[in-house]
Amino acid sequence: MTGINVETWIDLLLDACLDCVKLLPFLLAAYVIMEYLEHKTSTKTRAVVRKAGKLGPLAGGLAGVFPQCGFSAAASNLYAGGIITMGTLLAVFLSTSDEMLPIFISEAVDIRVVLVILGMKAAMGMLTGFLVDFVFRFRPSPIRYKEIHTRCESEHCGCDRGIFRSALVHTGKIFVFIFLFTVILNVFVALIGEERLAGFMSGRPLLGPALAGVVGLIPNCASSVVITQLYLSRFISFGTMMSGLLVGAGAGLLVLFQTNRKWKENLLVLSILYVTGTVWGILLDAIL
User: Fold this and answer.
1) What are the start-end ranges of the H helices in the chain?
2) Torsion-angle region of residue 68: left (phi > 0), alpha (psi -120 to 50) or beta?
3) pLDDT higher at 225 or 153
4) What does the pLDDT read at residue 276?
5) Which of 51, 65, 101, 121 is the most exposed, fewest CB within 10 Å of its CB?
């Protein structure tokens, strides 16, 4: 690539490799804990959301905070089956943490900051969920019910492989992605320059959250990894990060479009998710 010599390429690769290797033990520990929590609590959590009724957005916002593999996908299945409302589904989507939490843990981010972010995501998810249910009057319909099992092996690491093996597989996938993204980011910064890049993002308060929301719509863990890494690298603002993380629903949107045949509803969910996440991010940047 023009502008980068061989020595610079080697330095960039070594820096990326060193940075990622430092994260590896923390990522593995985080995913072991997360897999354990999922295996022990996922069934109970889903049952609570099913039975929540009008308080569905409250249960969905709280449940989405917990780092459960594929919970957003499970919520999509419940919505497609008529078990939960659209507001509950959106509460889960907006509060879902996906890969943010293990990356924050591996980077030793202050636990108080992590708790504040999780609390904000849960509160925003609940508020949006209750508002959506009030405005659109959507209610779950038993007629639509049909139990659909989450395809965990196609969206994540394979929950049936055991806690430690699943954690190893998930850690490996995230490690590779973080390494590739770190290399790309390092090359991009080397070509553009840190000051110029930071100035571009910070000088456009409306554009940042809007672009982060688009990235958040990517239906896998890649979006939350990219957004979290950009924030930790101080290339984007807190509000921009929150926009991407709020919109990012993991595999939830993909499963929703696969399981729910009502495309107008799916597009409405996607639109509300994007607009809500972007607006919250813009407001946070304006306030903070």
Assistant:
1) 6-51, 56-65, 71-80, 86-95, 100-106, 111-136, 152-155, 163-192, 194-202, 207-216, 222-232, 238-247, 252-259, 263-287
2) beta
3) 225
4) 95
5) 51
